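Sample 1 of the test manifest.
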Amino acid sequence: MLVVAALRWSDQRATVDPLTGEVHSDARTSGAGAADRAALEHALRIAEAFGGRCLAVTVGPAEAGEMLREALAAGAHDALRVEGPAATVAEDGSETARLLLDGLQDRPDVVVCGDHSADRGTGSTPAFLAQRLGACQALGLIELTAADGALHAVRRLDGGRRERLTFGLPAVCSVEPADTVLRRAPLPATIAARTAEIPVARAGSMRYLRAGTAKPYRPRARALPPPPGSEPHQRMLALTGALVERTPPKVLRPATPEDAARELLDYLRRHGYAP
Amino acid sequence: MTHAGPDSVSTVVDETTKTFDVVVVGAGPAGSAAALEVARAGYSVALVERGPFPGAKNVYGGVVYGRILDELVPRWWERMPVQRWVTRRATMVMTPTQALTLDFRTQDWGKPPYNGATAHRADLDSWLAELAVEAGAVLVPSTVVTGLLRDHAGAVVGVRTDRPDGDLTAGVVIACDGVNSFLAKEAGMYRTGHEAEHLTLGVKQTLALPREAIEERFAVSGRDGVDIEMLGCTRGIPGGGFLYTNLDSVSIGVVLGLTGVSKAKTRPEELIAELKRHPAIAPLIKGGEQIEYSAHLIPEGGYRAMPELIGDGMLVAGDAAAMCLAAGIWLEGVNFALGAGMYAGRAAAAALKAGDVSGQGLAGYRTMLERSFVLADHRKLRDLPGLVLSDRMQQNYPGMVCDLVQGLFQVDNPLPKPGLRTLLRRSAKDNGVRWRDLVRDGWTGMRGLR
């Protein structure tokens, strides 16, 4: 039996240029996020329960090998890196799923992924994996155990409710970090993994979808109820605030913090917020 | 999970096979230099680091003086991750409304073999550790050393870590575990119990500024950079301030005596905010956006506060050995750590070759340190840390010097210009400086510099 922990290599401390929207990442701060570490732990437990092999796999550049060495140290039997793009690409997860499965030599019985990644991932890759494998999928799990030849899971629902699932193999699961913590790797295994060779599979290039040029993040517009009034003219006036008596906005550039504090206090007094 | 701490206790182990010839604890400059030397000598070495990568936990806003790297890395300046080469050094004496700056620049420092550079510790430490790994060292990150392993005779034979099956046995343990070295304490190598008096708290803000703004405001171009040290900007708390230019950011902060800041009941960020508002500093950092805030302890006790450096099976280097020089215009640390680590690695390799890793067998470490700048400079300047952190130097002299210079430059027509002696007497009196203290401190300073 093959249990695959599909790990996403991402920078946990990536910075975004506020002007250009360009993402700056660093291999030193990159690795598996909390959800992916939980996925590895679940994969190890499932492999232990079923007496199978645990394979840690990722689609990423050579730097991602460090994350796979950590997985080997934690107890994964094998690791595999599927050659992927060095930079973050915008795609819907289907290309990652395709590359990942094409890179595997054997058909996995269980694939465990992290829930959506910390770098604003959509969490759709597990669904594409399940579709390609023809496996059942259980996504967004907070508990996952293997017993009696089946997998048992708990999924979080809206309103604080929980859904209990029992399903057979093959299966693709994605897990939230919840309270699952990756086991601490023993020191001898950690040292051995430092020099371990990570096999590389080249499963073709990623025909990823470009989502246009990178732009700064802008929150979605909030829908507000329309202003009352049957006439468009009245509604326009209400929206723009035109013809309403008001104090025009004033831009202040106080020279010192004391001046700034004085201006603020005066404003509060004028409007009755302060004595 | 257990972590090293003041109460950590050594574990006695039976004679076992050595996992490594040398275990180096801490992948800072000292640790990486030690591991590099041991690996180059052909011995196996583990470099244990508690952070996820070397430099992950280090705080630094200073200047790296890299000449010691001549012995370690040929043409290091072509490879070292440098932000800017320091071609301007300034010492600023300040009061809340005054500032006297001694400003020096030389383009000699902007070309090989260079003098000093600003660098980010995450980059610098990773680079140094990578050199050690390339030479054959095994880097073990995210691993905390929780204690020492000893044999029945009491000699150090390895370390215990927080990982399962986490004992690492070795011929020599080199403790480079930073300013609050629990390993050196556990080994009983600190002679004094007053460590807090020998520590300062460095607090730093990194402010993002466009490269063009830095070049314009600090009058530099290309990779040239500026290092400004300040005295008198800490409300009388023993310490000082600093301002360094990086490529597209500046590091500004204060260094405060630990006991002084505790007594003053003030917060370091208030002092930094005050420093940033100072009329001599505000124009330099205007518009800077804070991108990092960090703090770290610094061992500024100098030569007199150093622990024992050698034990049976153990050496201490870098901040763990208080090898940070804070003597007025000399503020150095990374170069001492590099030197000490390099000599520790050589001494460990020599002891392993001779088959004697006892304190006697490792004594070559002290000999090498004494023959080099590491202990020679510390011994020569051993009185200056106390003088720099003294109340008079912190509270009285900055005002006296600024008043004296203001009197010299101020034009009071139609009054005649006062003489230098009159100005000196007046500024000393106004700032509560007694002549005998001035003479005594001057003598201490001169004796330290001779």
